[in-house]
Structures are given as C-alpha cells and as structure tokens.
Predict the 3D structure of the following.
Amino acid sequence: MRTLIHLSDLHFGRVDPRIVTPLLDFIRATSPDLVAISGDLTQRARTPEFQSARRFLDAIPFPQIVVPGNHDVPLYNLFSRFLRKLNRYQCFISADLEPFYRDSEIAVSGVNTARALAWKNGRINRRQLEKLRARFSNVPAAKVKIVVTHHPFDLPEGVSGDHVVGRAQLAIQTLAECRVDLLLAGRFHVGYWPYGHPVIRKLFSADRLVRHEHIDTRARTAEFAERN
C-alpha cells in the first residue's frame, strides 16, 4: 500500500504563513511515500516567491514530484514571460518540467501544461502524450498509474467554460488507452473527483483506489492498494 499527499496552488507570495507550519506538520505525521504538487507554487513567478517555495519543499523529507502552473510563468514582464518562461521555476524548483516517479506499486508521471501564450489556461501537445504512452508502456498492469498536471482534463461540478487543458479530449482518450488510474490537478482551488466525463469514469476503479480524502488545507491524501 502506498500513501500519497497531493498539494496544489500554494501561491507563495500570497500564502497565509499561518498554514505553512501546520501543513508541514501534517505531511511529516502522515509520512507519505510521495508528495505530488500540481503547480502554481508562486503568485507572480518572482524570485522571492520561488525562494519561499524552495524552502517549503526542502522542509518535506519525502520523495516529491512537482510540475509548474500558469502562475509560475511571469505575467507582467513580457520579456521574461515569452523568452525566459519557466527559467526561474527551473532554477529554484526543478530543471525537470515533467518528472517521473516509479516504485514497486505506483508509477507517477508529471506533465507540464503551463504555456506562456495560453495565459491562465494550459495546453498539452501530442509529443507529451506520446511521452506518456512511452512511460506507461512498460509499467505492469498491477501498478497504479497516476498523472499530475496543473490544468485539469475535466471540469468540477458547477464550473463551465474553456478552463480545461487544451487538447483535453485527445488527452483523455490517450489516458484511457494507457489505463491511467488517477489524475491529480489543481487550478480551481477545490477538492473534487472528476467523474463527469464518460471516459474519465472508466479510468477509476474502486478496487485500486482505497481511500481519498480532502482536508481544509487543500492537501489531499490517497492510499493505494496493489491490484490482486
């Protein structure tokens, strides 16, 4: 069995400092096998914000998989936005924008959906989808497959518009073909299960996802049992 903590939209630069220590205490007490952070570590992609985010990550003594969000791309400095893009993220957080974690029970792939030209919305391209296929192609069926992105592939209940990631329909079909079990995303600052899309419903299996709970700090934990 594996325990995973999912965090998203921490927005250092705007975060309430009173929640940082309790959140870290919760993570340490839970002792997860992996901490997944699905983007928007900063509010405006400024250096001090990335430094705060880096200190937070350094205080987590467990394996991590982290992907950027749209707030991690500079907004007001157009030179930085379109030419440097995620340079600060790669300098302070991780040079790898699409990390991969694998152990004896789970395989977790991060995907970068943040785009300078997409502003607050995100996109996924065909190269990234083929990369997902390649990563999961040699993962045994008994392992739980997880994808971490900032932008979701489907909308939570009550949300409408074009807020899903670009090429979402193609991505959902690819995820289904790869037999992905769980999608972890951020963006909306709410906890929800994306059961609305008919293809996404096929991704989830009750015998593989034992428990998922949402807590007030917007941290989420999930425990996974290997399929018999």
Summary: Confidence is low (pLDDT under 50) at residues 195-202, 204-220, 224-228. The chain is about 30% helix and 20% strand. The two ends are 12 Å apart (CA to CA). The CA atoms of residues 90 and 96 lie 7 Å apart.
